[in-house]
Every structure is written in structure tokens, then in C-alpha cells.
Amino acid sequence: MKKATLAQMTDFDLRLLRVFKTVAEAGSFTAAESMLGITRSAISLHMGDLETRLGMRLCQRGRAGFALTDQGREVLRASETVLAAIEGFRSEVNQLHQALRGDLNIGLMNNLVTLPKVRITTALTQIHRQSQGGVRINISMSTPGEIERGVLDGRLHVGALPLINSLSGLEYTPLYDERSFLYCSRQHPLFAQAETVDVETLRQASAVAPSYRMSAEAAALHRDLDCAATATDREAIAFLILTGEYIGFLPDHVAAAWVGQGQMVALAPDRMQFSVTLGVATRKGRRQSLIVDRFLEALS
Q1: CATH architecture of the domain covering 11-79
Q2: Which CATH superfamily is domain 177-276 in?
Q3: Do residues 143 and 268 lie in contact, with contact meaning Cβ atoms separated by under 8 Å?
Q4: Distances (CA, A) of 23 to 74, 86, 288
């Protein structure tokens, strides 16, 4: 495709970027139809216009399915940043009228919904009621690292994650502590001796370790185990524990349902446990936003 330079962004360009972002998130033209309220042929024309405007191929589409090109992934990230900036401007203007109108983009780790302390849920309830539905809440589930990057580049207004290593560009507010224990399933040989199992026996069992960042306390406990598998999140850890082949750490609120059903048990709970503080992160020096400020106030 012939190289081109983008001289000036127009409303039409922004409309095309929103179409592109929706298609990329949906994963296909067909899936994006109902989200955009336009036909596949119209979506195809818009995508073609955008590729012509940018002078690059953004995606592959055809019998092999839909896939972003390397340039397409970069354009998507840039699109998310610029659209978030526009939304930030709209929020500032609405703030002049003291009206809660606009988007609230939140990044969460998975499995926080089972926490007994529902401060995030309560804060979302207050925002929805105070705005009378005028705030569109967009929640994405991701890893702590991705959440921090999203808050730093402006795609996310707020992120909820474990407070382990502080980044200089973010401000952190603690919410509550989360306690994790070492679990096995009913099918595991150690299930019957959960209370009395010794450390040496635990070292001989296959364990699963998270591939995301851990606290020093958690990392030390995992070093004493035979970590034969890794998982990107807590749900994946639970899947491996439930095979009966692995032991692994889970927050007690995540494991509670399986423990209550007799499907999991904590191993040597007096020794094999650790805590981590969960909190919210916002970008330092962020533009003032009535929506974000009200959400943070509701959390506290």
C-alpha cells in the first residue's frame, strides 16, 4: 500500500478510528455489526477508507479469518489513547456544569468480585445513581502490569490491583488486604492430610506458580515448591488445582466456593499463607475529572 502522511485529524477520521477500535475489540466485521448498528459492507468501506487515509494495512480479513497486522496493533493502541484524551476533554467540559456525564474506564484483576468487602461494587452503584445513568462504565479484566500501563497512557482512568511495586507515574490508594492459602483438590493425594502435611512433602508435589508479579513474601513461599506449571491469573491457577495434579495458592475468597463444596482444602494453613494489599491506582498529574473524583470518594 502506498505510503501516506496524515496531515490533520478530522471528525471523519475520528469516526473511522472508533469503527476500527470496535471491530478490533469484536474480532470480526460480523461481530461488530450489532455493536455499531451498521452493515458489514459499510464497516468494510469504513475500514478501507481508514487504511487509505493512513497508507497502511491494518488487518487481514478473508477465509483465514480476521487478524490485526503489526501496524494495526500499533494504530489500535494509538487510537485508544487519542479517543481516551477526547473523552477526558468531554469530561472536563461536563464538569463545568457539575454534571456526571461521560465514560469511566476501570481495569480490574480477575476474581475481585468474590471479595467479601464490596467497596468497588458499592462505589460503582453510587456513580450510577448519582449520574442517573449518565456515566458509561467500561470495565476490562487484565493483569496488574497491563492495568498499570493502561492507567499510565490514559486508556484507563482507574485500576484496581495488588500494591506490590509502586511506579513513579502512579498514585496508589490502599483498599483492603487479601489473604492467600495453598490449596489442593479432593482428587489430590495430599487432600486427606491437609492439616498435618509437612513442608518436605509439599516440596515434592507439583505446584503452579503465577506468571504475574508477586510480593516478596509470596515469591519466597513459591521458591520452596516444585513449580511445574505457570498461570497468567487466579482462574487459571484454580483450573490446574482442580485437575488433582497440582497444588497452588489462591485468595481465600476465590477458593471459598470450592472449599464449601468439599472440592478444595487448604494445605498447612498455619504456615502456607501470605497477604497482599489491594488498592486503586490513578495517574499522577491527571486532568481533574468529576467522575473519577466521585468514584475515588465513594471508594474511601
Answers
A1: Orthogonal Bundle (1.10)
A2: Periplasmic binding protein-like II (3.40.190.10)
A3: no
A4: 15, 20, 31
pLDDT value for 212: 85
Residues 107 and 279 sit within 8 Å (Cβ to Cβ): no
DSSP 288: P
Residue identified by cell 508435589 is: 205
Residue 55: what residue type?
Answer: G
Q: What are phi and psi of 135, to 5 degrees?
A: -100, 125
Domain ranges of the chain: 11-79, 84-175+278-299, 177-276
Reported pTM: 0.65
* pLDDT of 64 higher than 70: no
The answer to whether 272 and 252 have CB atoms below 8 angstroms apart is no
| Domains 84-175+278-299 and 177-276 equal at CATH topology level | yes
Q: Is 59 in contact with 66 (CB distance < 8 Å)?
A: yes
Q: Are 290 and 217 in contact (CB under 8 A)?
A: no
On the question of pLDDT at 138 being above 80, the answer is yes
Q: How far apart are CA 294 and CA 219, in angstroms?
A: 36
Per-residue pLDDT tens digits for 179-222: 999 999 999 999 999 989 998 999 999 999 999 889 999 999 99
Do residues 57 and 51 touch, judged by C-beta distance below 8 A? yes
What one-character DSSP code corresponds to residue 62? S
